[in-house]
Amino acid sequence: MQQSLTTVSQMLTRNEQYFDNRSLLICGAMEDGYPLQLSDCCQQLSIFTCDYHYYCQLRETPLAAQTQYSHSYQSETKHDALLLYLPKSKAEGRYLLANTLPSMQPGALIALAGENRGGIRSAPDLLAPYCSQVTKVDSARRCSLYIGVLDKEVPPFALAQWINEYSLEHQGEQFTIKALPGVFSSGHLDEGTELLLDHLPKLSGRVLDFGCGAGVIGSWIKRHNPQAEIEMVDINALALESSRLTLESNGLEGKVYPSDVFSDISPKFDYIVSNPPFHAGLKTHYAATEQFLARSAQYLSNEAKLIIVANAFLQYLPIMGQDFRKVKTVADNRKFRVYLAADH
User: Fold this and answer.
1) 64: which residues sit within 8 A by CB, 6+ positions away?
2) Nearest-5° angle of CA 291, CA 292, CA 294?
3) What is the pLDDT of residues 51-102, one digit of tens each?
4) pTM higher than 0.85, yes or no?
5) Nearest to 118 by CA among 85, 82, 87, 84
6) What is the three-class DSSP state of 124?
């Protein structure tokens, strides 16, 4: 658990009076251990996260029993306060509000906190459907905190209303992609994934789609390699549910489950395929992807291959070369490159 507080959490430490003696639900883009500190002033504290990495960290703390990891919050408790760490995607922020506010009592306090560059200034608009008045109560270190009171009717949450569906046509074939807000490839086929799909060989055996997003890569592999045993992992619960929906919509089967890099993955695979992420919220993080590349060889069988696509500026070849005998570039369109690594 990250010991140092983010700038958003540092700002919140000055405003804990808003949460005194409340039944508080915290959700959104949390990164640190501030909920542990905040639990001391609350009557009851619950945490809802879509981030498996953060969930795994909280499982090792006294807040484990009060933490829920899912794509949709489920609780019989009616809270009287919500603290939303606003995520980078405003669509995801709207989704989280719509999903959690049915679990609030009328008159509950609604607090939105975030960085200015992350769109926190949009808080009044995000809260307008639920609160007649929204006030900015603090602003420091390029972060802001907005407070409102839930005084409008909250409709029941319906997951189906938040699923974006689009038709993907590629190489003469058509797929239905379904994605929840904020999920990678939620609205269109990105250029990197398209290059990867164009250069995938015939696959067989046990195949891992690492960082599955909306399920585009895994579904494509299963459609073109029906005998392959496809497994799809991600840390984002919204991505995992999107991948399940995409597989189902196309009449395909695959195992979909959360994993923090390789935390829940068992070896050995015949292929690992990925468009690995390198962004986490507003920040650029390479550590998880570098760990994935460095450890992939341990999860592959002797004749197996790792196939990834990445932005051309990312220096992944040296990392892959440390653990694989052969690493080559199989496609390069100047913006993205497809790499293949093997030990034979």
Assistant:
1) 58
2) 60
3) 999 999 999 999 999 999 999 999 998 999 999 999 999 999 999 999 999 9
4) yes
5) 87
6) helix
243: its two tokens? 């991948």
DSSP assignments along 223-260, one per residue: HH-TTSEEEEEESBHHHHHHHHHHHHHTT---EEEE-S
Amino acid at 302: N
Q: What torsion, rounded to 10 degrees, do the Cα atoms 242, 248, 254, 256 define?
A: 30
- The one-letter amino acid code at 102 reads P
Looking up tokens 């915290």, which residue turns up? 26
* Residue 79 CA, distance from chain mean position: 25
Q: Are 199 and 316 in contact (CB under 8 A)?
A: no
What is the spatial distance between Cα 174 and Cα 300, in angstroms, rounded to a whole number? 31
CA-CA-CA-CA dihedral for 78, 81, 86, 87, to nearest 10: -30
> Which of 113, 106, 105 has the alpha carbon at shortest distance from 27?
113
pLDDT tens digits for 267-304?
999 999 999 976 444 444 567 788 899 899 999 998 89
- Per DSSP, 322 falls in state T
